[in-house]
Amino acid sequence: MIYFDNAATTMHKPETVIHAVAQALNSLGNAGRGAHEASLDASRNIYGVRERIADFFHGEDPSRIAFTSNSTESLNTAVKGILKPGDHVVTTVLEHNSVLRPLYEMEEKRVEVTILPCDEYGMVYPEDFTRAIRPNTKAFICTHGSNLTGNVLDVQSIGAAARERGILSVVDASQTAGVFDIDVQKMNIDILCFTGHKGLLGPQGTGGMYVRAGVNVRPLKSGGSGIKTFEKKHPSQMPTALEAGTLNGHGLAGLGAAVDYLNRQGLSFIRAKEQALMKKFYLGVRDIPGVKVYGDFRTMDRCAIVTLNIRDYDSGEVGDALYMDYGIATRTGAHCAPLMHQALGTTEQGAVRFSFSHFNTEEEIQRGIEAVRELAE
Amino acid sequence: MIRERKPCVVLTFSTTTAAMSMEKRCGEHKIPGRLIPVPREITAGCGLAWKMPEEDYEKYKDEVESLNITVEQKVWLKL
């Protein structure tokens, strides 16, 4: 199989990640629930991953990183934990349903939501956010990279505009963490939501959020914490505040090994390789008659995603042919980003998304280009 | 049979993360001690506490302070 569905999940994981999970499954107790070696080992392991993630995103200290099961949980926690009735929030049409649906729920609770449209390239700019500010604007919530087009937004300037006015900047890094350098302090990010199983190369069921010191997020869940057992209210100290219940220690062991791998390889190496593969694929398909590529390719400093359609063919049919006849795995149909599909005019047809990893090869890209060419004939 | 009790200093924390940070930093600075379940004499946030023999604490207390880890309570006990 040629796996071009890395924006959904990276299937090829480093060997060290697989080994770390297996080792954890053989040895870990429940973190923070005891003082025997099995429990302490789990606590040490998770603390080590917390430290590495905090360093990786340049957070102030490990306690600012809370682990969740994925970006969706992090984003739900952020949206529902900072907004109150009467608040206003600015977001974009690029967003995934994991941002939009929690926001629609909050709209029913009298939160005002402005959804910024994109231009013909599928882009939204910092000044669009600034123009949308109202006296009651509480937060800017935006994706770092579109899961549909791969376009990357200037979250640093968006964050600066927010910080200047005392507005919170919440960033969805689902498509960028592990590939793009993210420095939450330099980029003025108050809450960063990430998943472990995409660019970070960790197991599914891992993820988390960075919350800047001084930002108070009401927890989505309450329950066991290993601390303050006799208090009726869930503890407010980070990271426990946002981590009710047993953590995914086994998965997090894998995430820790994945971060080590990324640090050894270097994000600039990984990004350059992915972007080179994307560029080769883009240049190979863009001029094929009948092929329409979506998104902004004026710069190649973007997520390694090329989304296209062939003639008026159903994207699902194209994806099925790609897999059955060429062994190429892609994502088709609607990509959980309904407003972006509306903006691109692909609500009926959907779109075929090719998304690359640094584990892909130039030969695979070449076979992908040839498959698109044959299907377009 | 319960062990013989010796004078020691017990440090408590508000979160497991702080307790794990203590263990790691003490290891790096070669400060003796270990994590134990919080003794019932103490009310603490986190169920883990850092225990040091009293004589070790006296010897290393400046270094413990310099770790800059927020300690909830510091209690002298016979454990």
UniProtKB/TrEMBL annotation, chain A:
EC number: 2.8.1.7
Pfam families per the UniProt record, alphabetical: Aminotran_5
Occurrences of domain Aminotransferase class V (ranges): 2-367
Cofactor(s) required, per the database record: pyridoxal 5'-phosphate
CDD domains the UniProt entry points to: SufS_like
Domain of life: Bacteria
Gene3D superfamilies per UniProt: Aspartate Aminotransferase, domain 1 (3.90.1150.10), Type I PLP-dependent aspartate aminotransferase-like (Major domain) (3.40.640.10)
SUPFAM superfamilies xrefs: PLP-dependent transferases
Catalytic reaction annotation: (sulfur carrier)-H + L-cysteine = (sulfur carrier)-SH + L-alanine
Keywords recorded for this protein, A-Z: Pyridoxal phosphate, Transferase
InterPro entries with a match to the protein in the record: Aminotrans_V_dom (IPR000192), Aminotrans_V_PyrdxlP_BS (IPR020578), Cys_dSase-rel_unknwn_funct (IPR010969), Cys_dSase_SufS (IPR010970), Cysteine_dSase (IPR016454), PyrdxlP-dep_Trfase (IPR015424), PyrdxlP-dep_Trfase_major (IPR015421), PyrdxlP-dep_Trfase_small (IPR015422)
Family: Belongs to the class-V pyridoxal-phosphate-dependent aminotransferase family. Csd subfamily.
Protein name: cysteine desulfurase
Species in which this protein is naturally found: Blautia caecimuris
From TrEMBL, chain B:
Top-rank taxon: Bacteria
InterPro entries reported for this sequence: Se/S_carrier-like
Pfam family name, one: Se_S_carrier
Domain Putative Se/S carrier protein-like: 10-73
Name the UniProt record assigns to this protein: Putative Se/S carrier protein-like domain-containing protein
Taxonomic source organism: Blautia caecimuris
